[in-house]
Amino acid sequence: MNLTKEQKKERSSSLASDIKEAAGIFFTAYQGCKFTELAGLRGKLADAKCKFRVERNSILEHALKQAGIEGVDASLLKGPTAVAILKKDGDVALSAKGLTEFAKTNAAFKIRAGFTDGTWYDEAQIKILATLGSKEENIGKLANALYSVVASSAQVLQAPIRDFAYVLQAVENSKK
Description:
5 strands; elongated; 2 domains; Alpha-Beta Plaits; 59% helix; 5-stranded antiparallel beta sheet; alpha+beta
């Protein structure tokens, strides 16, 4: 599909605004994957509030410059490239998990890199990120840990009072 210069500028600025508002972006190589497989990936990533889109490298390069993202490796924009753009309220770990699971089942799909919170991640780091739980799971684990600390502290503080009550009862029973 041939795009006019104006259409390219429009797509580039639209993509740049999406990237500026994003919590993260993942760069992938999709060549060799079937359209139906990529549609399944899009559905899986939608649960993580992540949008998967195929874009021309030149448009993507201009969009990254407009978004102010620096340190882009030139090898990221070689060959067919697709990006997964994570919305602000999306889950980075869940998105990384969806991409790595798809890469395991589709040999043609490769994760090239990721960018979130001003930091670049390579494929190995993204796989580690995918092993983390989702935001809700991590909040649940934290709440459980905090509750167990409070509960055990309460038991320790109640023990002397309880033991003192047992001693008083034993003294009362012995005097009867």
